[in-house]
Every structure is written in structure tokens, then in C-alpha cells.
């Protein structure tokens, strides 16, 4: 779960995380963990196939300044609620960034899931069991995070491997840093 389509990436191509450096970083990690069939995606129809994964976003439009306003996230929440409602129980969610993490929490709570106390907090590598789902968090694969080393490919691969392992064993989280 990302934040929103990038103006020159997903908004232009029609596929989330496609056609920009954030997408290249993410799809390489998804490929390395067996969740997609090729290491990059440039456009729709380029042969990319997801396997056991869904790539989505909390906001459906490219926000000005690359950061959606609370009203924009509120306007898009219904799409996210409907999308998550279609997923099977025990689905493992990976939130890319703090705003996507907060959006996932809000949608899960609105769907009737009881949030752990204290309220889950975003940090790279944390995981929570919420309403039968597992929510894992990763820093967003933005150029700001990847160029500075705040998020490395091994860090993202570890979160994705934990997500795969949790899904394979019925949503039981793997031994990352757990908070909840």
C-alpha cells in the first residue's frame, strides 16, 4: 500500500508505482521476493504479473506537492475500504510510509477491527495483528529515502519476505521487530 500515484509515474502510466524510480526500487524488491515476474514496470501492458500481491494506494490521484491533504485521503478512503473488503481474511498488508500506514489503520478500524492498545505506531519493520490481518510497515521507496540510505533494498526485501512468510503460515507474523 503506497500513498498516491506519482505525477510522472503511476498517474501518467495508469499503474501504481510504474514509470518512476520509486516503482523501479519497489518492483526490483518484489521480483527478488517472488511476488512479480519481472524486476521493473514501465507502463501498463509491459508483461508485469503479480503473484499473491496487490499494489494499491491510499489516495487515488496525484496530490499537489506530492503529499495528499487530509480531505483528499478522506475522499479516497471508500475506494480503499472496498478494496480491502475484497481481500480474504488473514491478508497481510504492507504499508509503504507513515501516511499509508495511518490510512490502513483507519480503514481496518472502520471495518470493525479493534486496534491494539497502545495505538500502533509507524516504524520501519514493525508488524501488528489487527482484525485477522497482519500489518507490516516499511519506509516508502521514495528517492529521498532510497538515495539517502534510509531505505535500502535489503531492508525492503526483509519486510516483503516477512509478509510472504506471514501469508504462507496463515497470517502469523515472522520475527521482525514486533509491536503489538
Task: Give the termini distance in whole angstroms.
Answer: 20 Å
The CATH topology is what?
A: Uracil-DNA Glycosylase, subunit E
Considering the protein shown, what is the CATH homologous superfamily? Uracil-DNA glycosylase-like domain
Secondary-structure element string: HHHEHEEHH
- Unreliable spans: 171-180
Number of domains: 1
Helix content: 25-40%
Cα-based radius of gyration, to the nearest Å: 15 Å
Strand residue percentage: 5-15%
Structural class: mainly alpha
Largest sheet: number of strands, sense, barrel closure? 3 strands, mixed
Got a strand count?
3
The overall pLDDT, averaged over residues, is: 85
Query: Treating each run of at least 4 consecutive H or I residues as one helix, how many helices?
Result: 6
Name the CATH class. Alpha Beta
**Proper CATH architecture:** 3-Layer(aba) Sandwich
Strand order in the largest sheet: 1-3-2
Amino acid at each position: 500500500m503506497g500513498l498516491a500515484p506519482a505525477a510522472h509515474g503511476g498517474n501518467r502510466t495508469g499503474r501504481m508505482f510504474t514509470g518512476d524510480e520509486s516503482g523501479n526500487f519497489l518492483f526490483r524488491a518484489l521480483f527478488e521476493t517472488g511476488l512479480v515476474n519481472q524486476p521493473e514496470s514501465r507502463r501498463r501492458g509491459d508483461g508485469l504479473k503479480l503473484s499473491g500481491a496487490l499494489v494499491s494506494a491510499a489516495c487515488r490521484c496525484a496530490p499537489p506537492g506530492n503529499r495528499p491533504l487530509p480531505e483528499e485521503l478522506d475522499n479516497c478512503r471508500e475506494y480503499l475500504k472496498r478494496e480491502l473488503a475484497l481481500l480474504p481474511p488473514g491478508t497481510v498488508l504492507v504499508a509503504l510510509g507513515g501516511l499509508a500506514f495511518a490510512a490502513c489503520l483507519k480503514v481496518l478500524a472502520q471495518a470493525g477491527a479493534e486496534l491494539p492498545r497502545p495505538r500502533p505506531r509507524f516504524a520501519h519493520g514493525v508488524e501488528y495483528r489487527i482484525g485477522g490481518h497482519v500489518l507490516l510497515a516499511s519506509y516508502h521507496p521514495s528517492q529521498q529515502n532510497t538515495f539517502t540510505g534510509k531505505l535500502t533494498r535489503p531492508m525492503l526485501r526483509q519486510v516483503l519476505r516477512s509478509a510472504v512468510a506471514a501469508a504462507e503460515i496463515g497470517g502469523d507474523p515472522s520475527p521482525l521487530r514486533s509491536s503489538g
